[in-house]
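Suppose a colleague, Dr. K., hands you the sequence of a protein chain of 225 amino acids and asks what its three-dimensional shape might be. Before reaching for any lab equipment, you can write down a predicted structure in token form. Begin with the sequence itself:
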Amino acid sequence: MQSLLYIGTNQSALDNELNKLKDKLKVSQFNYIEYFPSPSIGIDIVRKIKEILTLKPFGGNNRLMVVKEMDKATLQAQNALLKILEEPPANTYIALTTKNVSALLPTIVSRCQLVTVKGEKTKVMEDDNATLKLLKGIIKSSPGQRLLLAAQYSKTKEVALDILDQLLILLQSLLHDSTEIKLTTSQIASTLAKVESAKRYIEGNVNYKATLDILFLGFPKAKLI
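The predicted structure, expressed as tokens, is then:
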């Protein structure tokens, strides 16, 4: 796959992985191009990428284009990048990095090979089976049962925010390895975005009980493995 998404919170670790990819592909300095948010990734950067892609890589070798902190990209820029990620030109590889995958469009995530940077992968499925059990419980439950589950975690604002944080960690790990639960990458990414939005609403003093009710009702329904 020629489009990759590197997920991690340690910038030096992300840079190290990009260097490994560059060495693996034997990309020269002439064919290595990086873009950074300034202060965001806008449509202008995507236009520059498209312009470069009309040209062949120098020397006919592999080319690597890197967009760092893709979570800071505007919605317009993300939409404009979709076609490029789906069908990069021959000998061209595109690597995105993000510290917050929930800020990306699910369609961006689904078009990339996901790489969780070594040392960043959560062990929530090993150390906190309660969160995984809750997620499985939600997706197999009826709407009424989901509301009952939401009520258990909306006794206080702090409790609601805590469970959302745990779900965010779990869902990010499932993006890398979904063998524990039968959800598609698109479903996981979409659910992750919903949880992140719910957290922002509650932090903004929107009614946390109603927010959790709506969130749990909006989770996908999937057949468990």
